[in-house]
Amino acid sequence: MVAFYEAWNSCIIPPRDPKPSLLDLKAAIARHMIEDCRLCERSCGVNREDGELGYCGVPATPRIASNFLHFGEEPEIVPSHTIFFSGCTFRCAYCQNWDIAMDARCGSSADPAALVASIREGIVQGSRNANFVGGDPTPALHTVLDTLAVLDPYAPNLPAIWNSNMYASAETMRLLDGVIDVYLADFRYGNDDCALKYSSVENYFGLVSRNLVTAHEQGEIMLRLLLLPGHLSCCAAPIMEWVASHMPDVYFNLMFQYHPDYRASLYPEIDRRPSAEEKAEALALARRLRLRIG
Ligand code: SF4
């Protein structure tokens, strides 16, 4: 079996065209952007190439906590080769992935060639896409683009998924144009106060909705709304109303799996699971608004 993979890797698939591609150019621009980092709307302005760290703490060479064939995502995209970058641009008090999101040093340094070998092995095992997540993939934009540039000659039709909190800068969104097929996008807060309180993020609603409009023009969106306990009228309802009026055609996943984690116990109002009544009410609203519930 090992001999088969070696042959497959070296002979059967043609080697990469040495001419620079548009993807190479985008990757070079993204690498340049981390010298005055504005990959996300935190706009730290640090020189990550010089070893400076911004809010996310992600170094110039991001680290990968794990990457594997994931069967737990939406049924339409599994099995999904999911690459978990360490570090995040948010600080969600209830983070369900806090062990890798809050520690950008977790795992090993990302190597695009090794990642491509792993993705190609995943294809042999039935993987349907390459799914870039974290933490959040935004601080690793340059590595994602490098990886896709190396992967492209071998698997040009493999869908690329951007699995994100959607707090990227407008420049980052532009670089993703023509590269990302599916935005697996979280939309969680219906107002800026809740976003600031629970995720330490400013101007949330305007920036995330702006990026969703861009993503809608650039590719497919699979939208995820994680129902937070006690946040139906302030968050879930305004989000659903916004989706119904701006992009009623998008796949809409109303998620009920919230459980208190990380530092949720510091906020008694979210230190519980959503009630059966809250879930039923949220679902009824989504149906009333005729959202395309996945
Ligand atoms: S990606 Fe990280 S360093 Fe860059 S602007 Fe965002 S938080 Fe700051």
Number of helices in the DSSP assignment: 10
Overall structural class, as computed from helix and strand content, comes to alpha/beta
Query: Which compounds are bound in this model?
Result: iron/sulfur cluster
Helix content: 25-40%
Number of strands: 9
| CATH level 1 name | Alpha Beta
CATH architecture: Alpha-Beta Barrel
Biggest sheet: strand arrangement: 3-1-2-4-5-6-7-8-9
Which blocks of ≥5 consecutive residues have pLDDT under 50?
1-14
Taken in chain order, the helices and strands follow as: HHEEHEHEHEHEHHEHEHE
CATH topology: TIM Barrel
Shape: globular
CATH superfamily: Aldolase class I
What does this structure look like?
This protein is α/β, with parallel strands linked by helices and 294 residues long. It has a single domain, classed as Aldolase class I (TIM Barrel, Alpha-Beta Barrel), CATH 3.20.20. It contains ten helices and nine strands. Strand 5, helix 6 and strand 6 (182-186) form a beta-alpha-beta unit. Helix 9 packs parallel to helix 10 (276-288). The protein is globular, with a radius of gyration of 19 Å. Iron/sulfur cluster is lined by residues 37-40, 42-44, 46, 54-56, 58, 89, 138-139.
Describe the SSE topology.
Layout: H1 2-12, H2 22-33, E1 63-70, E2 80-85, H3 98-101, E3 108-109, H4 112-124, E4 130-133, H5 141-151, E5 160-164, H6 170-176, E6 182-186, H7 192-199, H8 204-218, E7 220-226, H9 232-246, E8 251-255, H10 276-288, E9 292-293
Parallel strand pairs: 2-4, 4-5, 5-6, 6-7, 7-8, 8-9
Antiparallel strand pairs: 1-2, 1-3
Helix pairs in contact: 2-5, 4-5, 6-8, 9-10
The chain binds iron/sulfur cluster.
Iron/sulfur cluster is lined by residues 37-40, 42-44, 46, 54-56, 58, 89, 138-139.
